[in-house]
Write a structure and sequence with these properties.
The chain is mainly α and about 80 residues long. The protein is built from 4 helices and 2 strands; from the N terminus they run βαβααα. The protein has a single domain, classed as Rossmann fold (3-Layer(aba) Sandwich).
């Protein structure tokens, strides 16, 4: 996503689909589903415009949500709140 490319990931319950939003920044498929993965790959291969769209949306999401400064601010805010309790 940081390179402006679309993402295909599996839903693992670990935050993968929070980072890569299905139908926004790429595609999310069920784990251990080779057919779904193959379909997702074919969808992206068949559509340069969709790849560009997901890639641009992914890059924007990285810039808004996952830069070093954003992540550090969130960690500091978390600890500040935890220490205030």
């Amino acid at each position: 996503m940081a390179y402006g490319l679309p993402v295909i990931c599996t839903e693992l319950g670990t935050g993968t689909s929070y980072v890569n939003q299905h139908g926004v920044t790429g595609l999310v498929v069920a784990p251990n589903d080779a057919s779904a993965l193959a379909t997702a790959i074919r969808v992206l291969l068949a559509s340069p415009e969709l790849r560009r769209h997901y890639g641009a949306a992914g890059r924007k999401r990285v810039e808004q949500e996952f830069t070093q400064s954003v992540m550090l601010d969130r960690v500091q805010a978390f600890y500040a709140e935890a220490l205030a309790k």
